[in-house]
Design a protein that fits this description.
alpha+beta, 10 strands, 28% helix, 21% strand, rod-shaped, transmembrane helix
């Protein structure tokens, strides 16, 4: 037989209140029902009179139902959902942000590398298309021309390093022919004419000149040779 928790009065199982003090009686746990503490909550310290004295009873600790546990609190170590560090739940978010930053940096590096390679390829293409500058051609006189220009014509008389004459004329006429040829410049045609005054007859004389190593100017039996420039 069970007793009342407040006054100690014995009672039978079907009773719900104490017949002495009227205190609600707890249902036996074996019956598969919740106790009064679970249903009504903890009433706090209870005192009752027995033999003229009030005796306090031990406070009943309320049983917190499993559904009242906050979902934000970490599970127990034995639970499959136990998380020793609550901050680890944010690790996937941090990892996602870090991965996005790394991908952006790799994309920028690849773009810069492609731009550098394109610039280098363009410079190489321009160099190949233009090619190296060709050396300027230098006017080199042929061996024959050089030999003719240094060798004096036969049967001539030297009037100066630049002009010689035949024996049928004089150096005054030869120098006048030289002056007329020099007025034409360096770019003279293969055949041309010059007119000078003969100092002996004081008449104009026209000579036909042709470039043959020396510039040979003739009229009748008079011949004058002018060194080319």
């Amino acid at each position: 037989m069970r007793q009342c928790e407040a006054c100690g009065q014995p009672f039978a199982e079907p009773a719900t209140h104490c017949t002495r003090c009227g205190h609600p009686l707890a249902v036996a746990a074996g019956a598969g029902h919740l106790s009064r503490v679970s249903i009504a909550g903890n009433p706090g310290p209870v005192s009752y009179e027995f033999g003229g004295r009030a005796r306090p009873t031990a406070p009943v600790t309320p049983v917190t139902p499993a559904s009242a546990v906050s979902p934000d609190e970490p599970s127990s170590p034995g639970s499959p959902d136990y998380d020793p560090d609550a901050t680890t739940r944010f690790a996937p978010i941090y990892a996602s942000h870090s991965k996005a930053k790394n991908n952006a940096a790799l994309v920028m590096l690849a773009v810069a590398l492609i731009a550098s390679v394109a610039s280098l390829a363009w410079l190489i293409g321009q160099t190949v298309a233009i090619g190296p500058s060709a050396p300027r051609a230098t006017a080199a006189s042929s061996p024959t021309s050089s030999k003719l220009s240094t060798a004096l014509p036969r049967n001539t008389t030297v009037c100066s390093p630049e002009v010689v004459r035949s024996d049928t004329t004089n150096c005054t006429l030869a120098r006048r022919v030289l002056a007329a040829v020099r007025t034409l410049g360096t770019d003279v045609p293969p055949t041309f004419r010059v007119t000078v005054t003969d100092p002996q007859t004081n008449k104009n004389v026209t000579l036909v000149c042709s470039v043959k190593g020396w510039i040979e100017c003739k009229t009748g039996d008079v011949t004058v040779f002018v060194r080319p420039q």
